[in-house]
């Protein structure tokens, strides 16, 4: 998938000015250039273009609010001076796995006065003698180089990752609200509710059974009375016949 199409999909019916974070990792850049990004992404704070085949950042638009730029695993070998013009407020820059060989290549980054963290891991420049000492000398504003400060103390996770604070706050609140709603829906009935319903059902079924028995007994009683009257009638008839025979004799 090329970069333009990926950007279109990432927008998800939003306008560029609504986007604060844009991840374009592993898509394809034509001729090693950034495509599809415009000045309209004026609120963008985090941009990731890992492993997209970039050879230059010359086509990067003006992104005044960009704080973190991920450019790792590309083929960039120079042209970093453009970053101070296009992204003047960068605090975190990841160039690991690129074709950077000389200290002079990173020297223009000194114009990024707010740059706090720089990553050049897996670049040839890291093999130079006194590499770390020289980079910190060239870029005095740096706090962390390749995840460690001047005293070789590891950066906290927040600085190592470099994500702008607050980017996901709104999403987190929405997720919490959804979780709370799901919890309310999943709550089981309070203890005793099922028992009360069961008792009511038992009472109802018991009443129905009693009514059925009474009806059945009533029907049986009616049948017994009819049989009894019929027997009395037959007996009376026999008595009358016997009386008639006696009179004839």
Helix-strand blueprint:
Blueprint: H1 3-11, E1 21-23, E2 46-48, E3 68-70, H2 82-86, E4 92-94, H3 103-106, E5 117-119, H4 131-138, E6 144-145, H5 157-161, H6 169-186, H7 193-248
Parallel strand pairs: 1-2, 2-3, 3-4, 4-5, 5-6
Family: Belongs to the ANP32 family.
Biased composition (Basic and acidic residues): 147-156
Function: Multifunctional protein that is involved in the regulation of many processes.
Detailed description of the structure:
This protein is an alpha/beta fold and 249 residues long. The chain has two domains: 3-164, Leucine-rich repeat, LRR (right-handed beta-alpha superhelix); 188-249. The chain has seven helices and six strands; from the N terminus they run αβββαβαβαβααα. It has helices spanning 3-11, 82-86, 103-106, 131-138, 157-161, 169-186, 193-248; strands at 21-23, 46-48, 68-70, 92-94, 117-119, 144-145. The protein has a six-stranded parallel beta sheet with strand order 1-2-3-4-5-6, covered by helices on one side. α3 links the parallel β4 (92-94) and β5 (117-119). The model is unreliable at 160-175 (pLDDT under 50).
